[in-house]
Design goal:
globular
Length: 284
Amino acid sequence: MQPKIITIIMLTLLLVLTSCGHPVDPAPAAVGPAPSVENQPIEAPTPVSATAPTPTPAPVVMGPALTVSPAYNIKEHVTYSGARSNQKKLVALTFDDGPDSKYTDQILNLLKKQNITATFFVIGEHAAAHKDVMKRIISAGHEIGNHSWSHSDLTKLDEQQLEAEIDKTDEVIQSLTNQPTTLLRPPYGAVSQQVIEYAEKSHKIVNWSVDSRDWEGISTDRILQNIKKEVRPGAIILQHSAGGKNGNLSNTVQALPLIIAYLKEHGYQFVTVSNLISQNVPNQ
């Protein structure tokens, strides 16, 4: 064997023997700036399987159901107007606070001349004091309604006082008409749940849709304008046959023929409140 080859073999064996049992040092790390965290790749979250079931929420324990009473709606118990059909343009003239010995008779004369039937909401103590005028209202075929005994605000009375205001007036009316009245117009149009619950046992509560404001002592022209502005088919028109500002209702008496003429000119027919709200209207 050539000496050169022998030398190479011996050097190789020596290198192997010196490395046995000792770890080989890793390659040195490259020196440089630390890598930026912002630029490191972010591991994508493991996708949720589309078929995985949706977690079921914990059941809600319900208590007993609460019953909440709706607010008492007074307007549902009060009549303000009748049917508003344009096929029959009906209107009801109503007169409050009578009878008296002066203006009620004048109003009755005008209605008779025009062959018109109206509704009078009378005060009990006035009806008792003017029975002759009451008889004239009845004989002319006008309707009579209850307007309390003394024109008190019924909403400010206790139960006993409220019943007396309505019942005493009913008694006077029935003693003259031989039948009970079924209509009640509370003074000032003021109603409450207590008033309604008692009145509705035997009455229909009727207010109005047109206020002539005659009780303010305004001029005849203003009374007429108030009615022109508000009147519609089915209207219930409020006027007075007694009382008024300083006890004077001459404005009402003067305005009434103008009101009637205007309504007739515009095709209105005059009926009582009961006929208006029942739509059981006689031919006129």
